[in-house]
Amino acid sequence: MDPNPNRGPEEYREQGHPAGAPTPPSGAEQAGSGGQARVVRLVSGGYLVTVNPVDGSEIEPCPPGERPAVPGKLRADERAGAARAAAAPLPIGPPGSAGHETLLEERSEETERLVRLLSRGRSVRLTGPSGSGRTRLLDAVATACADLAPDGVIRLSGYHRTATDVMYALFGAVYRAPRHRPDRPELLRRLGGIGAIVVLDDLEFGGTALDELLDATPECAFLTAATPDVPAPSPDSHLEEVFLGGVGRGACARMLERAVDRKLTADEESWAADLWFESEGLPLRFVQAGALLRRRDRVQAEAAAAAPDTADAGEGAAAGSDAHPDGPLPTLGEAASPVPLLAARMGAAAQETLRFAVALGGELPHQAHLPALTEDTHADAVLGELLGSGLITPAGSCYRLAATVQEQLAALGYAEGAAARVHTAAQHYAWWAGHPSVAPERAAAEADAVLAAMGVLTGSRESGHASAAVLLARTAAPAFAAALHWSAWERSLRHGQEAARLAGEVAEEAYFHHELGVLALCSGSLDRARAELEASIGLRGVLSDRRGAVAGRRALALVTDRSRADSAAADTTVLHPAGPKADAKGPQGRPDTAASSGAAATARLRLQAADGTAATVVARGSASAAATTALPATAGATGRRAVRRNAVAAGAGALLVAVLGTVVTLGMTADDDSKSGDHVTSEQTTPDGENPELPTEPPGSGSSLPPSTADKATPAGAGRHDGTSPSASAPSTGQAPTDPSTRPSQPTARPTRPTGGPGTPTDGPTRPTHPPTGSPTSPTPTEDPTGEPTDPSPTGPTGKPTTQSPSQSVTSTSGSPSEASPQSASGTAPQPSASDAGTPSDSGSAPAG
Prior knowledge:
The protein has about 850 residues and is α/β, with parallel strands linked by helices.
């Protein structure tokens, strides 16, 4: 069987491509591993997607050279050609046998009202029961409104379609954008520029989904048709509601006369009146009744031609309806459910076609597939017979069983052997959809029947059915993706993933997970994309599928990058408050209230400082506070907690700086009033006129660690855990001593004496410790009363900085400006101890270890 019967010269490509051909341009085919494969490159938003049926789709950021041109609108003739291609195919039956050629009866008033509303820009929802003739009325209105809108009339189908599907279908019907699926912002922008009358048949959604569609197309007027069981639109949608009922008794009689092409007899008129009362005038019932009468007339004509005596046959026919060769007229019950009578008198090909339609849940395969499915070379001609009998009705680009037909056929036994027929249909569609010569758009037009076969086989537990569903999904899904019918792509992938799980085909299950992840990434569902891709990578890792795993990791990297970008955008929105008081800016442009508070405290302390010493202390404290608050915040909740923690630490540091400045000022004032220059500690000898230095705390008084270990515990620049700033205890080193004679011209190096508290053993003197190079504050070493030299350097007995409390630093700064800062000597922050608040020790030195 030719997979493309009656194809045009440009619609489909020819077969016979060489193996190993390079990657073709967008929309072409190439040969891949495992046979011919259709590889299509398309653009979805900012991504370039390569649909590869062999190894799985690949996704990457769209390079500048691959970005599509700005979509342009189709011309009127191009829109008309696209509309004809999207319509249901015409039957091949004999002329006049198709029931869709029946004229409308008593619908002129409804037609004029709908045209009047649409010409005013109003949207209308036409509601009527199945069989009321909604599709025929839409055809008449569309013909009357052809010249009302700039972009003409756009015919769309809502059968098994969502609001998003309808939006993209409207975009494709107006714009010239091959292999381009814009993202949602661009889609909404393009839809806002469409001015057309949109005729939407078989609508299946309402409420907020319908509001979303109407809001996205403000310049369009919609004429939608739906059954009463479809959800109603929201009260704010401003849709005009028009209810469509049956037609009158006279109109039904005229429909029967046109069906049989003659006047009705008296019995037939009475029969038609009873049927009109029972069916409430639904036109579909009279199309089926006309088929019954037409068949009776044909049987009568055949019997008359076969009778040897034509006169006797004519007398028998004139005797009345009881002498009719086809028997009496159907009863009222039979006329209300005419499907058994109509199906019983059809040929074998038509009956087998109905069985396939019942097995597929009411979906009728395209007439080109009927010869292969029914094994009858003339089965493609039964479409006209089925349509003229009122058993099928158009549904988008295909046909489906009419209302109540499937139930009546199932009651007759047409559902027997349905699973076997679906299996046959799935094998046929798998061969056809995967053929390189079949265009993706042609495969997408058959999506309803293909998806119905997948659903039946996935739910079946018979042997081989799950594997057949996997094969069908594996071949049809890439075609749906290439045709931009992504709702069908997603449904086929989910059917295939479930069928692969049931069949135990792990490799195919990994493929479907990968494709679902790529689809979710294109749709913006990052969490779902991550879950699907991770599942695919895990399964392919078990199978040692290196190529598939690499493709999955590349897609997962895009998901990670997109997630980080979205998180950074969200954090930027949260961490950038705008207000009249947000004057101070941090390192990343964020308002830095802690830095501004520290600057204000610095200004106040500078005014309170009596000399350069206090000013230097304030400057160092403010700089340290500013450095504490200048740490960049990490994106996310961790960054926000870090910002708050730094702000608290900076505020505490600024408060401590203020207290220290006040203490320094008061201490200096007290020193000026009363000098105590004869008191000398055991650690150093101070020049005359200076306050004594507080002794160094014993190593074991406030901490269990020895001095060297305690000094190493706190890294340089680290924040204090007690809420104080590291720079608060850093005294000034730029103040010269009062007596210039005590200042040496060169720093003097000498050995230090080993002293320590309990638990700090020493074996002897350590290496000499040199003070900071160029320090002008190191006094001349002196000896204490015990004969041991004292060390005015900032290092302790072990060559490490002596642990010093904030209070000792303040006293040292005010009383002995020549004392070097422990922090400046070693680069480490001092550790506070519990004994810092106590009275200075009177002993000259700590006891030896």
